[in-house]
Amino acid sequence: MLNFTNILVQISINMVLAIGLTYLILLGGIDLSVGSVLALCIIVAGKVITMESLSVPIAIILAIAASIITGVLCGLFNGYVSNRWNLHPFIVTLGMLNIARGAAQQISNSRTIFSFPAVFNNFGSQTFTGVPVIFLISLIMIITGFMLRKTVFGRVIYAVGNNEESARLSGHNSGFYKVIVFVISGYCVGIAAILYMLWLKMASPILGVGFGSMPSLQQSFTTKDDMPHIALVMKSLANEFFLTMEHEARAHQKSSDTDYILTANGIRNEIDVSGQVRIIENMTAQDVDALIVAPADSRALIPVCAKAIELGIVVINIDNRFDQETLSSKSLRIPFVGPDNRKGAKMVGTYLAEHLEPGDGVAILEGIPTAYNSQERKAGFIEAFREQNMNILTVRSAEWDMEKANIVVAALINEYPDVKGIACANDSMVLGTVATLKAAGKLDSVHVVCFDNISAVQEMFKNGQILATADQFGGQIAINGIEYALEILRTGS
Q1: Which of 248, 285, 327, 407 has the fewest CB atoms within 10 Å, i.e. is most exposed?
Q2: What is the pLDDT of residue 48?
Q3: How far apart are CA 474 and CA 337, in angstroms?
Q4: In degrees rounded to 5, what are phi and psi of residue 463?
């Protein structure tokens, strides 16, 4: 039943967004900024709803209004600029994608917002005859869809999309309709943002990355040719851990005694290995001096890094270690800067076991199975649980992803209702895990531990929603990798 509920909730958000995008598509438009605007609406609403100076009812009402207004204003901007200067929506919304995401990170200081009013959180968890309230709200939005077929306005949308010139000759202002469909899409994004908050009980600037498109972040902070050019190639920018890594690397570049050019790159999600390969190829073509690589896959990135080494580029491996057998088979030596993942996982696994009874059932959520750090963290958890006589019920992969963890844990607690502890191999997965446990009413009976120590779980730790996390100091890992590369470039060894 919980699986069915989770599916309905996720369908709800997609459905509301799809309603708005339908209007755009009918006019031949496109909106790449949906995910970023969604994050901005969530952050704005999250800031408003947690304002201590407002009473709870007023805070909730203003938060809903703020989310909708933010979405509408972003849509109005997209529509007006596209129509006024006859720019293709692809170009305009690509710009809004970066503007909205940057604004969300700036407003939130790249931190997750918690502590929503209890009445708001409880409402999001309610069901009516087994159907989530969130899904019922999304059904009301279908009325917006009926406007297309049952009103003059909707028929004109079809007419303009089918033949703009004919619609204009019939007396319809096609420019107005081109703008208004973006406004409708923004309105739907604002509603979807509130549904997201009701579902996850938090507001984070990294939400919404799966919607629309999020290109790699590429920023150079100086252009002097005599400076070494360092490229930081990270994994998913949807993971707060790598956003923090990029921010601290940027701060180091500005304060370092050694002047260097820094370009920071990342992929859309943890499984976008081909995207990371393309980034490294692009950086190699730009003749960077050093690559600092946190690989999404411990083997797949080795060939492209080998080509970079052949061209004289220094390669430093950080965070997730390259497979040593594959390196040896290619006679490669790539320095590694990173934590002892196995030891860290064993520490938090042991801490979890100490809060349980021998024989209690525990489950492990691993990342991508082919990633070395996922393998090591899984091994650390297993070693700790076996030493403490825990009953390991299952090991499942959620691919480092929050929403996938939500689905996996829903199935897990349905299959193993007596599970007492869950160990997550990263913090993003624990966000989905906690949301699922809370929705199932099991947050007080299931202890959870994780790995990374992003700001979002720091709040969860303070609130008692998780038991422990391992801090691997992601920003310092990047800084150490950069300094190591600069030393090699300076000394030649």
Answers
A1: 285
A2: 97
A3: 11
A4: -85, 0
